Amino acid sequence: MSEAGRRGGDLFEPVRTRRAFEAVVGQVVDRIRAGELREGDLLPGERELASSMQVSRPTVRLALKELAEAGVIEVRPGRGGGARVASVWIPERLLEAGAPEWRAEEIFAVLEARRAVEPRVAQLAALRAGREHFEAMRRAIDLEAAAAEEGDWRKIVQADLLFHRRMWRAAGNPHLERMMRDLGRELIPALEMAMRTTEDRAWAVEIHERTLAALMRGEMPGIEAVMDEHMSYLEIICEDALGRRRVREIPDFLKGRPAR
């Protein structure tokens, strides 16, 4: 693991909403969940954050206070101080929209959209990932394994998404990454259904281990197979939890299998 350090303001982007306070909190939370900010990293100073996000310094100060009270960052005053990431685990109250109560049709539609895109993103990641990308995915799996040992399903959901976000980043296409990030937020209700038992939590760690191994080998059929297994497991759990099957069956071409 590389040493923690001060991160630059280019990690953040201008706020384009009137709810500036929530947007500043949301950007910091998002960068932590994406693995771009790690435990011990020092955030830019208030002035640089305000300039990067194009908000006032009092707004930044309030946002940092909220994050500190939630235990996400630690603020130390004086020379050599600043706001430092204290934990990569985000309290539920700070997670944007948490896990909305969606209808079964909406959840199944999100799972279908994932099938249409994520296996190709995974294959791009295998072609383009460097050592640093694989190491980032490895760290996400280690966090997930620790959370599984602890039995905290909320932390496992965060670590699960972190693994996928590092894989999406490794694909090297910011448009696909942004598309998958939006889809990932909508996957949260499904992921929460899938992390409630000891067996499910252990399986989540194991499938990510095998996914990473397939990515590192760069073997496209192997990536296709492990992604199909990965997605099928979640789909079956959702059908069981929701007490109904999908109205529309998944076509063979979305399963990575030749059409009959």
UniProtKB/TrEMBL annotation:
Top-rank lineage group of the source organism: Bacteria
Chain ranges of the HTH gntR-type domain: 18-88
Pfam short name (any one): GntR
UniProt keyword annotations, A-Z: DNA-binding, Transcription, Transcription regulation
InterPro entries per UniProt: GntR_C, TF_FadR/GntR_C, Tscrpt_reg_HTH_GntR, WH-like_DNA-bd_sf, WH_DNA-bd_sf
SUPFAM superfamilies in the record: GntR ligand-binding domain-like, Winged helix' DNA-binding domain
GO molecular function: DNA binding; DNA-binding transcription factor activity
Protein's name in the database: FadR family transcriptional regulator
